[in-house]
Write a structure and sequence with these properties.
The chain is built from 25 helices and 24 strands. It is an alpha/beta fold. The strands form 4 sheets. Strands 11-15-14-13-16-22-18-23-21 form a 9-stranded mixed beta sheet, sandwiched between helices. Strands 8-6-7-4-1-2-3-12 form an 8-stranded mixed beta sheet, sandwiched between helices. It is globular. This is Xylosyl- and glucuronyltransferase LARGE1-like. GO terms for molecular function: glucuronosyltransferase activity; xylosyltransferase activity. It is a single-pass type II membrane protein.
């Protein structure tokens, strides 16, 4: 058995001996230095005396020198000889001290290795004969060096050192929304410690492709390149293998790395998404230099008794060498893998053992171990610190004695962070550190590697703070916000819980699932040079183009949510036996920050249809939100709501950017553009579906925005009106008011609330300056202008653009929303108190008007 080398740890006796030797050396050095200084000072003093007596000559002196001068010269020569002698003694002392230190270190290393063997023997039941052989393979003579060689302790040398600017390739299999979220922690841990340019190869399904494409392009990390490889063709190669592992079919994908990755790639590190790296990944890459030509893989040993077949009585694991190998962290030599006809090797092994074992239990790991059992020469054993496994029944504590020993943590248990382990609190803290770490801090340059430099420096704002009074606003507009769409994705409803297909209504093509265009965003993105990073950008960009077409998503990469329960909202009654009404599906779009999180549950209680919500959060707040969604019965009970996260950066709330992110993921024909502080009337989703279907039959949808009248209450406790009649009663009683009637009348005055009170059919209203209604509109509506951040003109500008485009505004007579009271936001407080803030909003307004003129001609002012 080969033990992993552990760091040297000196015992108390060894440290004491080193201390004594160090003290002796210091005293010897001080004495020698003092003596040398005295001799030199004496020589200088003698020369001064000679200089002082210059000109005095004794007639009896030889060659003109006096007897005194001759004596002084002799003493000076004696001093020089003593200095040379002392130098020799000092060199001897230094040599003896270094030899003593070296001997002490070797003896202490042997003690540590012996202790490690004893520890492993106690943990793994090694026999005493084997133990003695490991400790004294040559009967004690020369045991120190031979002991290290026998135990596989790596010596420190320059072999395998990774050059500073060498690109390291890392492959990760990532499928589904949950894996796309968990892989972010892995990426953070790798990027935090890395010192080399990296190229990530993601083997993805359609869902993960869209999420990671958006995230990594907006993250914009220098010296990082990304390639996406389609997982779908690979599933045909592995779908015939029965698998009982919780990873399902995707757990077998690593068997096809030779097919999945490009032929130009020769070596790659393969990591599972549940890995947390705790050191520079280049250290792992350096082990490639130690692989022999016939070795295809570098793997760490499995740290449980699974492959020993001792976990329970009838346990029948797949064959493996000893404890087997764990495939969560692997070095793979792809060139050698292809040359060895790897596909045939694993298929033959799988077919042979499936006849008796029927299915894999640990996915690809079972088959790889079976191949290694037949061909042990293809595996190189990595130190177990590179795969500290935290699953049930593991003995990972044998791999580390202190924090510095740990290289990579593997959460390979279905319980993940809840797994039982002796040091689980430490591991959990390390994982949470990266989970909540601000990813924006990882946008750092690697100095000296200009050939692979990222784009971070190219995105700096050109305007300086000195000559631009609204510098902060302009910088916010140009900020490339890190965006994680489908951070919490809509769950696919259980087919058994749905009504028969014949009884379901058509909702504009919605099928209750989130779909992505498999053909979008494929191929390599070298340093994200092929990504525009403009997710959520609006019409105000300098090129004057609508960025919906140039964004990462083309409209098919988003939310496609059917309302499978809507028949219960308006079914039954007198028309129960009639043909079902045609409806058009609508997705609610809103944004929020952490201080409005409590509104989500209230909103979902009022709105039964699909919703696309964007949250503006820090990394730590995102984890709090995730925990909130997992504990809320209301949120967990909905399968048609998607939550997207835009990570905080800068001083303003980028409201229009957030709206655009939510809009771009919508797949239903219509969107309801509202704010999180408004509660829609009960059954509004079903009402809109019926109303829009009826309007479509009579007048179509060509450039029409349907206005939902907005009201407000100043009471925190309100009996919410269930009909228009109850709402009108609340208006008459002074419990409800038209929205912002006393602060910003112009914003909603064109709605004509007096006419709405008695209206029974939709009616048109004229656009007026500063009009900002909440509307239902077709999803191909232009995006919001992202120059407007914080408070002021963010909705007004959007409605103005719709007016310039020729949209009509049609007020719905039986729909309404009510604004709930809340404390003023930080941005509105700044707007009310800062003249500079108001001035900059006017500047942005002027710039927006000019951009409208450039884009559409003579825009109305």
């Amino acid at each position: 058995m080969i033990l992993v080398c552990r760091p040297q740890k000196f015992s108390i006796i060894g440290r004491h001996r080193d201390r004594v030797l160090s003290v002796r050396f210091v005293h010897t050095r001080r004495w020698c230095c003092g003596l040398l200084a005295g001799i030199l000072l004496g020589a200088i003093f003698a020369l001064l005396i000679i200089d002082h007596l210059d000109g005095y000559h004794d007639p009896s002196s030889l060659l003109g020198f006096s007897p005194r001068e001759v004596r002084l010269v002799g003493r000076l020569r004696e001093s020089e000889q003593q200095v040379q002698l002392l130098r020799k003694h000092l060199l001897v002392s230094q040599s003896e001290l270094l030899n003593a230190w070296s001997t002490s270190a070797r003896e202490q290393q042997d003690d540590d290795v012996s202790a490690a063997v004893l520890e492993e023997a106690s943990s793994f039941d090694v026999t005493s004969d084997t133990l003695r052989t490991k400790l004294h393979p040559n009967g004690g003579k020369g045991r120190r060096r031979n002991n290290l060689d026998a135990l596989g302790v790596p010596c420190k040398d320059n072999k395998g050192i990774v050059s500073k600017c060498k690109v390291l390739h890392i492959a990760i299999v990532c499928a589904g929304y949950n894996s796309s979220r968990s892989v972010v922690t892995l990426l953070k841990s790798v990027l935090f410690f890395r010192r080399n340019p990296l190229h990530f190869h993601f083997i993805v399904d359609d869902k993960a492709r869209v999420v990671l494409h958006t995230l990594l392009s907006s993250w914009n990390i220098p010296h990082v390149s990304v390639s996406f490889h389609d997982i779908v063709p690979l599933t045909d190669l592995i779908s015939w293998v029965p698998n009982k592992h919780y990873s399902a079919l995707y757990g077998l994908v690593k068997l096809t790395l030779n097919k999945a990755l490009p032929r130009s790639l020769d070596k790659v590190i393969v990591l599972d998404t549940d890995i947390t790296v705790a050191t520079d990944i280049a250290q792992l890459w350096s082990y490639f230099a130690k692989l022999k030509p016939q070795q295809l893989f570098g793997l760490g040993e499995n740290q449980s008794d699974w492959y020993l077949g001792k976990l329970w009585k009838s346990h029948r694991p797949w064959p493996a060498v000893g404890r087997g190998y764990n495939t969560g962290v692997m070095l793979v030599r792809l060139g050698a893998l292809r040359a060895s006809n790897w596909t045939q090797m694993w298929r033959l092994a799988a077919e042979r053992h499936l006849t008796t074992l029927l299915a894999t239990q640990l996915a690809d790991q079972d088959i790889i171990n079976a191949v290694i059992k037949e061909h042990p020469e293809i595996a190189y054993k990595l130190p177990c610190q590179w795969n500290v496994q935290l699953s049930d029944n593991t003995r990972s504590e044998t791999c580390y004695l202190e924090v510095a020993d740990i290289k990579a943590i593997h959460w390979n248990s279905p319980q993940k962070l809840k797994v039982r382990n002796k040091h689980i609190e430490f591991f959990r803290s390390l994982h949470l550190t990266f989970l909540e770490y601000d990813g924006n801090l990882l946008r750092r340059e690697l100095f000296g590697c200009n050939a692979t430099a990222g784009k971070a420096s190219q995105l700096q704002v050109q305007l300086s703070e000195d000559d631009d009074e609204c510098y902060e606003f302009h910088r916010a507009r140009r900020t490339n916000y890190r965006t994680h769409i489908f951070f919490v994705a809509p769950r696919t409803p259980d087919p058994a819980a749905l009504p028969p297909a014949s009884s379901r209504r058509s909702h504009g093509g919605s099928d209750g699932r989130a779909r992505e265009d498999a053909g979008h965003g494929r191929g390599m993105i070298n340093g994200f040079g092929d990504l525009d990073g403009n997710v959520g950008r609006g019409i105000g960009d300098d090129d004057g183009k609508d960025r919906r077409d140039s964004s990462i998503h083309d409209g098919k990469d988003g939310l496609d949510i059917g309302d499978h329960d809507s028949q219960d909202e308006h079914g039954g009654g007198e028309g129960e036996n009639d043909a079902p009404q045609q409806t058009v599906d609508v997705t609610l779009v809103a944004t929020l920050s952490m201080d409005r999180l409590q509104m989500v549950e209230q909103l979902l209680m009022h709105w039964a249809g699909p919703a696309s919500l964007t949250l503006y959060l820090s990394d730590a707040e995102a984890q709090q939100f995730l925990a909130y969604t997992q504990t809320s019965e209301i949120i967990a009970g909905r399968s048609n709501v998607a939550y997207h996260v835009v990570y905080k950066e800068g001083n303003f709330y980028p409201v229009n950017f957030l709206r655009n992110v939510a809009m771009q993921q919508v797949e239903t024909p219509f969107v309801f553009l509202t704010d999180i502080d408004f509660l829609p009337m009960f059954d509004l989703h079903a009402h809109l579906g019926r109303s829009l279907a009826a309007l479509q039959a009579t007048q179509g949808f060509h450039k029409t925005a349907y206005v939902v009248p907005a009201f407000e209450t100043q009471r925190y406790r309100l009996t919410f009106p269930r009909s228009k009649a109850e709402l009108l009663h609340g208006l008459d009683m002074g419990e409800l008011f038209t929205f912002r009637y006393h602060i910003w009348t112009k914003g909603h005055a064109p709605t004509n609330f007096a006419k709405w009170r008695t209206a029974t059919t939709p009616y048109r209203v004229q656009w007026e300056e500063d009009f900002e209604p909440y509307i239902v509109v077709h999803k191909d509506v232009p995006l919001y202008d992202t120059r407007f951040v914080g408070f002021g003109w963010n909705k007004v500008s959007h409605i103005m653009e719709l007016h310039v485009l020729g949209y009509e505004f049609l007020v719905l007579p039986n729909a309404f929303i009510i604004h709930t009271p809340h404390a003023p936001s930080f941005d509105i407080a700044k707007f009310r108190t800062s003249p500079q803030y108001k001035f900059c909003v006017k500047v942005l307004k002027k710039e927006f008007m000019e951009s409208l003129s450039r884009k559409y001609g003579n825009a109305e002012s």
